[in-house]
Amino acid sequence: MNQEAVHLLAISGSLRGASSNSKLLHAIGALLPDNVSCEIYAGIGELPHFNPDLDNDDPPDSVRAFRQTVKTADGVLLCTPEYANGVPGVLKNALDWLVSSGEFVYKPTAVVTASPNPRGGNHANESLVLTLTMMTADIVEGGAVTLPFVVSAKFGENGEITDPDMISRLSPLLQSLADAMDRKKQAITE
Ligand SMILES: Cc1cc2nc3c(=O)[nH]c(=O)nc-3n(C[C@H](O)[C@H](O)[C@H](O)COP(=O)(O)O)c2cc1C
Hints:
Layout: E1 6-12, H1 20-27, E2 36-41, H2 61-72, E3 75-80, H3 89-96, E4 108-114, H4 122-134, E5 138-147, H5 164-189
Parallel strand pairs: 1-2, 1-3, 3-4, 4-5
The structure holds flavin mononucleotide.
């Protein structure tokens, strides 16, 4: 079967400069199938606080740009830390801007939570899945993964993932996401 060229949007839930979650997103390019291009969206920290009064067809410019970027992506990968047993406010805020405008509807989506903690951010992972399910995202098979014990030692000098366990947890998720994006694109173009 011919694989369609598909475009993945990756969003980190951490604004921290040395974020492990952002590092993971920079490293996954090497694990993605050849037909998948990947763009990292670094603008969620620029979005205003969600306000239903501004949630309309003429939203703030940063919100309009964010909505358009998510809309044109074939799939989305969220990679986030857990803060105080929950989803970081900056990421939840970004998702709240997409509830009524519907960019996540049937969008192939996967969720990774990475943490130095042994639970791997399981509360944030579960919470994100609940939120995305409410938004009718298509969370792909095996598309919610917690990564425990994620520390900078698990990345090489060039930012590559060196930990075999991390690679073996991430690879099936990325393949499943790529397959779902490909199936959806084929269905649209048929
Ligand atoms: C305010 C705050 C709350 C945190 N709460 C949790 C938590 O509930 N569970 C957890 O696993 N880690 C928690 N952590 C630790 C983060 O997982 C850790 O700092 C991680 O490296 C952040 O991700 P990043 O490297 O992508 O920025 C917390 C960190 C901060 C700063």
